[in-house]
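Appendix B. Extra example for self-study. Work through it before the problem class; the solution is given directly after the inputs so you can check yourself.
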Amino acid sequence: MTATDRRVVLRLYITGHTVNSRAATDNLRRIIDEELLGMYELEVIDVLEHPQLAEEDKILATPTLIKILPPPIRKVIGDLSDRDKVLLGLDLTVR
Amino acid sequence: MGPRTEAAKTEPRMGLERVATGIPGFDALLGGGLPKGRATLLSGSTGTGKTVFLTSFLQAGIQQFGENGVFVTLEETPADIRANVLGFGWDLEAWVGEGKLAFVDGSPADDWILEAGGSYDLSPLLARVDHAVKKVGASRVSIDGLDGLFTRFSNKEAIRSLLNTLTCHLKAIGVTCLIAGERQESADTLSRFGALEFVSDGVIELDLIRGQQQSIRKASVRKLRGCSYRSGVVEYEISARGIEVFPKIEVATLVAKTDFSVRRKFGILQLDRMLGGGAPQGHMLLLTGNTGTGKTTFGMQFIVEGMRGGEHSVFVALEESVSQVKKTALEHGWDFGQAEQAGKLAFVSGRLIDTSPDRLLFEIVNQVERVNATRIVLDSVSSLLSATMNEEQVRQFLIQLSAFLKARGVTAVLNYLCTANFGAVKGQLLSNVETNEMRISSLADGLVMLLYVERGQSVRRLLNVLKLRGSQHSKEVFRYEIRKGKIVIQGKYEE
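Solution. Structure tokens for the complete assembly:
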């Protein structure tokens, strides 16, 4: 089964619009555009605006990329510049 | 109602307001409660009950003071915490439902966290705590398991930064914080404990000392910036009701005086005469004797005589069980069970091993106050010397007990097992007791000795008042007999 057969739901939690938040967002889009070819849902959530969601997803650090679907839930933290780690963390096959 | 304790005796209390933890002895130790709007660190190893303290702080806020709270847990799950305190009768789930309590659940979940380059910070924790505080309008926050962050995240700077901003923010919004920290055996002060201590305005230390059968827990204040507090150590226990602290009795020697105009009789004619009328009120008499000399019967007689005059008493049973004591009394025709039910007599029973001195004192004080006792019998001092109470601790215990009793005008008879003196001649009898028991006997205001002497075919029981501070007393030796329902003093002892 390849990554494109499954529906992927991701959430990226950031704190405010900082340089780090920007870097994480950009890095992430690049990775998943290449790997998932558009077959994904991504929500970027600002912890300061939605602390309740951060509580529900048990987010302790930002930036945190959390893979909601497919299960199991996985979290990757940092500016996401380490592509291999991101893919490993998301449990997606590496090309 | 617990025993009355006096205000902190160190320098005059500075203007900082206090937030009561709702644990009476603990608040006394702190000089009124935790410093309001500040963060205090509770440091202790596993088993000291840190989580119970943290929960208790919030519970008291909700149930006693109408103050809502937030529990930030980075170790145990909220479900585990709820389950752990259900036994105390605290329904955390209900309070969450009523909007009085909120959890911030930072406990490690099943999902992995992988670090993928670059930097990160722990600002979400701050945002979540702030959100929870605002949601329930909390003025109290308990934080558990912060040390665990150092194992879960590699960025130490991020953790330290979070600790700093979190505590600063909570202080800025006027919330009072109690933070639990794990005490390490090896002093890894810089990364873990040191970081927590750095952001706290005060540190309370909890210790666990394991005895043979029980453990004794102690709490002390290490620092409380800008506040006065009681120095020294208090003992505590985690009981069925939560945390129970056994506070120190203040030794107010100025108020503690014996009233020589009031005499508490034994109801044994000759003995009362030998004591110059009876035991002076507030005196602590040591009654020494070997097994079988009838010490316990003398003590019981003291109580019975008191009850005849309408006085109430406390019997501290450390040698035998309370039911055994009642049985023995019944053989003499004294119904202690009935006296207990009528509120004229209270019992304090103790375990023979691992007795905690503060706890015993706490119970004695409670009972004396409950029945308004003017007489007390302790059977025996000898059984206090055990695995967890050495001679020095027994002395300290007696000093505190004596001060409390004198201040309340309670007269005490303490039994002491003295194994010497069988078969010696008169002169030797007396000197033996003086040298062996001098350390503890010096604390007593009076010393009554019960002795055996073997003379030919028979054994004589002898009694002598060795000392009676501040009062006339007979220095002669008398023979006595224990009969059913009374002790009879016969004639003087002739060699």
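Self-check: The two ends of chain A are 14 Å apart (CA to CA). If your reasoning did not lead you there, revisit section 3.
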